[in-house]
Specification:
The protein is α/β, with parallel strands linked by helices. It contains six helices and 15 strands. Residues 37-43 have low confidence and may be disordered.
């Protein structure tokens, strides 16, 4: 039953050409990431550059085997379905392909008003250029698909439009990162699955509510090219906020993750939103393997495996 919509109307919509389903639209938002003032001490730490090249390799990049020495021009693109990407000299953004499904006056429309998508993009592909930080695949081409506003909020229908845009414009070998989620939406799940069948790989954040990710969308979607990602900290412990469950394929660095800040500079955030882009980078490079399991994953019988580069 759809709120405010007669059953007869809903039924008639299903008979229309091109309509595969009807469901109530809903708000979808980021789980509030944690801003961290100092790094948690543990087995891994950010590696500072030299005085002549003061670039930082964040601990998470190093833990997954990065930065990878791969020519990004030989690879596909990563579509960042998020709050947008702020124009940054440390990123290679395909501005022609970038787009927005949010109408709030932001210029360019695909730019980032919240900072979340910029942070995600930095983890994927911040350029190795002696400034800021470096990503998993330095210089990887990223595409902004803006579906959330400057408050990190949007609608399920906008996210579906974003996923459909990736399906229409992406190619086999491309990757999409979805560091967002919400309640169950069969239509969003179907959109992700359909796009993945075209050979586009998806890295999806498991969520930050410490619940079974199988009860959320799109994290619960399973498929050959779909990878749901939980988060671990520098001690390789499952983060206390991380969702878990049988739908989780990999765990990635998700606590105290340093990456690019909207505007300029860097900022440290935590969340499965930060873990997923580490896996997106490895998927883009087409060289992902496993290096250990997380500690403290007592929620199910299978501890999440830690993703790592098979390229070196």
């Amino acid at each position: 039953t759809l709120t405010g919509v007669p059953d007869e109307l809903a039924s008639s919509l299903l008979t229309m050409t091109g309509v595969i389903g009807v469901e109530q639209d809903a708000v979808i938002a980021l789980d509030d990431p944690l801003y961290v003032q100092s790094e948690t001490q543990g087995g891994y730490a950010d590696i500072s550059g030299t005085s002549s090249c003061p670039e930082i390799v964040p601990w998470g990049i190093a833990r997954v085997g990065g930065p990878l020495e791969i020519d990004p021009s030989s690879l596909g693109k990563v579509f960042v379905i998020d709050t947008g990407i702020f124009p940054n000299a440390d990123l290679s953004i395909d501005t022609a392909l970038s787009t927005s499904f949010v109408n709030d006056g932001t210029s360019p429309a695909w730019s980032d008003g919240a900072g979340h998508g910029t942070h995600v993009a930095g983890t994927i592909g911040a350029i190795k250029n002696c400034m800021g930080v470096v990503g998993v695949v330095p210089g990887a081409t990223v595409v902004s698909v803006r579906v959330l506003d400057r408050f990190g909020s949007g609608t399920v229908s906008a996210v579906i439009k974003g996923v459909d845009y990736v399906a229409a414009n992406g190619q086999e070998g491309d990757v999409a990162n979805l560091s967002l989620g919400g309640g169950i939406s069969s239509l969003l799940d179907s959109a992700v699955l359909n796009a993945s069948l075209k050979g586009i790989k998806f890295a999806i954040a498991a969520g930050n509510n410490a619940i079974d990710a199988s009860n959320t969308s799109p994290a619960r979607v399973n498929g050959e090219n779909i990878y749901t990602v939980s988060a671990f900290n520098q001690l390789e412990e499952l983060c206390t906020f991380s969702n878990w469950g049988s739908c989780v394929d990999y765990s990635g660095p998700g606590q105290a993750v340093l990456s690019l800040r909207k505007g300029s500079g860097t900022v440290t955030l935590s969340g499965t939103s930060m873990a997923a882009p580490h896996i997106a980078g490895l998927l883009l490079a087409r060289c992902i393997t496993v290096n250990g399991t997380v500690v403290g994953d007592i929620n199910d019988s299978n501890p999440d495996v830690i993703a790592y580069s098979a390229c070196k």
